[in-house]
Amino acid sequence: MFLKYVKPLLMVVLLAAVFSCSEDESPSGTETPDEVEDTFYYIALRNDGTLFNIGNNSGKVVQTGRIPGIEFNTLFNSVTSSDSETFIYEHRFDPPRGILHEKNSESGQIQSTILDFPEQFGENTALLSLDWEEENQDLIGITRENMEQSNHQRPIMVVRINPDNLQIISQDINLATEGYENVFSTSLVGQKLYVVASKTERVVNADLLEIDLEQNSITILPFSETEAGITNLGNSGSPNSLFGFVPVANSSIMAEVRPVIYDIQAKTSSEISEVPQISALHFAHKTFYNKEGGEFAELVGANNAKSIFKYYPSTGDHQIIKLQNADDLSSLINIIGIREL
Does the record bear Signal in its keywords (predicted)? Predict the structure, then answer.
């Protein structure tokens, strides 16, 4: 049974296995002194449901509990939040089923529901992405048929999900008809869904798509600065830009990435300057944006250790903080929220 969980997890979360980051091979970065006062905690979720607090200034890691019901296969790009709920999708394989865990932000209460995918979506269907849509108060997702095998042009459908009854409705957009087999990262901006999708099982050379949910149209956006593509998308609420990471081709550093800003209007990207070498932990998730602090926060490899990379779009400044007591984090982890002190 263990192998049945591991195989799909590696296929979706670590699809670019050659880029997997080990702490021993992480590049140099900037450390923070041990005695630093924190003002809030980042909440980090491990793939098995374990939760951690990470000090925003000290980088100190403390295990705080877990999401009951999650076993092993959280799909991080299918984790999203509204003002009152965090939605966490997990896919299981024995028997095949998708489970949506809903965590109430105030009470901490968890509700877990097995999703009922319509027959038109095929067998062993899973959610590759999930984004909260504020205007209509619903969820936008992308499904893929047969998670245990290579896709081979099986349906990859854009859907809407009612958060009250979890009814799944197709948007009549099938990325497989355009040749795509995998989805790594998504970010919803208004009624446009930005999607990192690949026609192979690798994130390198993946396309950045703009899906207009009102017109049901797909546009491939140019990415002139590099041929490697972009992933781990983040959005600050701005309709004009996306944040993300570009894999560095032919690097001597495993999973090396460069942080970039993508200008949606001009359709150009610009690298964030003067950032030391950093490595991605994995390539299939969203970069967390902290609205209160006005910062993007991403767990990365730096200076032979796991670290937090922070970028402040209002000033263009960045910061790298080495994590303390990070042995239990693994690479299958992502920041999903904050907790005030």
Answer: yes
Q: Which residues touch 6 (CB under 8 Å, ≥6 apart)?
A: none
CA–CA separation, 236 and 188 (whole Å): 11
Task: Report the alpha-carbon distance of residue 10 to residue 89 in Å, rounded.
Answer: 16
**Mean of pLDDT values over 279-293:** 96
How far is residue 192's CA from residue 274's CA, in Å, rounded to a whole number? 31
Specify the pLDDT at position 29.
43
Report the 10 Å Cβ neighbour count for 326: 20
How many angstroms separate the CA atoms of 322 and 303, rounded? 8
Please check the confidence at residue 181 and state whether its pLDDT lies above 70.
yes
CA dist 195 → 10, 37, 175 (Å): 20, 38, 10
- C-alpha–C-alpha distance, residues 260 and 281, integer Å: 17
Class of the CATH-defined domain 2-340: mainly beta
Q: How much is the pLDDT for 34?
A: 57
Q: Alpha-carbon distance 62 to 51, whole Å?
A: 9
The domain spans of the chain are 2-340
Which pLDDT value is given to residue 225? 54
pLDDT in tens, 229-261: 899 999 999 999 999 999 998 888 999 999 999
Which residue in this structure is represented by tokens 């790298």?
Answer: 320
